[in-house]
Amino acid sequence: MNNIGWLKIAIICLAIVIAGFFVGNMHKTGKKYDRYVTVKGLSEREVKADLAVWPINITLTGNNLGVLKESIETQSSAVYDFFISQGFDQNDLTRGSTNISDARANLYNSGQRNVEFRYLAKSEFTVRTNDIERLQKALSASLELISKGILIGSKNTWRPIEYIFTGLNELKPSMIEEATKNAREVAEKFAKDSNAEVGNIRIARQGLFSINDRDENTPEIKIVRVVSTIDFQLED
User: CATH code for 53-162?
Assistant: First the structure.
């Protein structure tokens, strides 16, 4: 019986030792896991826009609605023919609605009742194309429309032509890879100063992709940018 008692005690002690070992090891491992560095990785690309949208207003004034209607239809057709002559496809061109305002109908601005022209008509016309160079040439050549008495202007005065880059999905994989490599380089410099080595990625947080104009004068050239935040383990 005494031998059995001592055996039980030995087993209990051994169990306590083993449990202590595992608890200590877990604590050590946990401390090791807490050693990490958080860094940011940047990736940028300079790309050319691959889609342009030019919303145009054709503006006319007059006092006779019938004559104004004929004039706006004639000028809309002339603008359409102009862009066709510039090499655009009919699918690139969209004729929008025509809005006519009556100056004498404005009850809150009596001064408008004595203007020379009672009616103001604006007809919308949109050019949407992937041929950026062709559109820029058409923009310069559009002065000939003005010389014919056709008053056209961009609907959005602050941004006459909207330039868009649609190829982001093709860039994402390589840019994320580059941002990750950049982040690791930063982590390695930090680890070197700390006498440590960079281990595996602990947590990775991909930032949002942004697409902005390179500058105000060349909106057709874009800067695509992403910043990723990554936690790297540090090892001895």
Answer: 3.30.70
